[in-house]
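Predict the holo structure. Ligand: pyridoxal-5'-phosphate.
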Amino acid sequence: MPGVRGLFIPGPTNVPDAVRRAVDVPMEDQRAPDLPAFTLPLFEDVKKVFKSRTGQAFLFPSSGTGGWEAALTNTLSPGDKVLAARFGQFSHLWIDMCIRLGFEVDVVDAPWGEGVPVDIFAARLKADRHHKIKAVLVPHNETATGVTSDIAGVRKALDEADHPALLFADGVSSIASIDFRMEDWRVDIAVSGSQKGFMMPAGLAILCVSQKALAQAQDAQSRRCYFDFADMARVNKDGYFPYTPPTHMLRGLRASLDLLFAEGLEHVFQRHHRLAEAVRQAVSAWGLKLCAAAPHWQSDTVSAIYLPDGFDSNAFVRHAYKAYGLSLGVGLSKVAGRVFRIGHLGDLNELMVLTALSGVELTLRDQGVPFTAGSGVAAAIEHFHRTQPAQLAKA
Ligand code: PLP
């Protein structure tokens, strides 16, 4: 297919040229005497994206799923109880991992399209007088449904119950795109991955861990080896790794952080919000519905969109790919065949969003979905025009 293909899945995301060039370097000596001068500031700078001053960053050659495992096995002992809500494929998979690793999970099932039920969490935490719950799991952004949860609300529930459980957040599809405040929310472990907001290839689990969680890790009895925080911390302290690090990915991460800091994190978050809002305006103009059940849950990184009854979203996504080289996300698990997803995160601008929206419109038209061609694109254009940064707006 000639021309550029459109990658609008919610990760992996488009990799900016600066990051691609940074990754495309000769292999280097992982024990070189000058490596720490590069890695030590890198570890510190990663923490800035999590908004953590006192935590410790860990970079594991892995993906986000490995980060989940690291969080659980480093801090919990077999049979420990965790509190978690299930309202999408990724919250489901993290719970499934907990069960397979031998933890007891107090699962709160919530409708797919809603976020963490903070009130129910608050009640469970208050009722847990003997502090059997050792960790509370929160998917900050459920990528399957396009729902962002209220981590500050969960922190408040923990505080009001005077509960000492650790707070874990899955920020795989939010961190570096949506505001995340590890220190303010006193999150104990936040997990992310390289291939979404960090705009890199897949291959790094990026974590930030509080001092409280690190202290707890000393007594946690779960079996672990590769993902052991203590092994990693001991060698990281001097700027090295306990096993061969993917140095090209570390170079890529440096370039990614440089881009994020040059734009300014707050601006990155605002940009994501503005682009996401354009997608939402388009969805509304098409007469379609988001999976996110209320505005406060709408995600700024991914929109899951229901097709009208009678249309198969798998066929829809397949057609977009085959006919136009446009990659959209499929619906997963409970919403498979019913929703398609537009990933709007990472290295993204207005024109790219308009490309995605016009590709969706072409596909809607081809699939016979009733809507007015051009309506979504027009709504997005109006939104972009109305919200143009002041210095660009024409009088
Ligand atoms: N958590 C969320 C919210 C995700 O979106 C994903 C992947 O898309 C994961 C965890 C799993 O991460 P990975 O695929 O990098 O292992």
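Residues 6-12+264-386 form a domain with the Aspartate Aminotransferase, domain 1 fold (CATH 3.90.1150.10). The mean pLDDT is 97.
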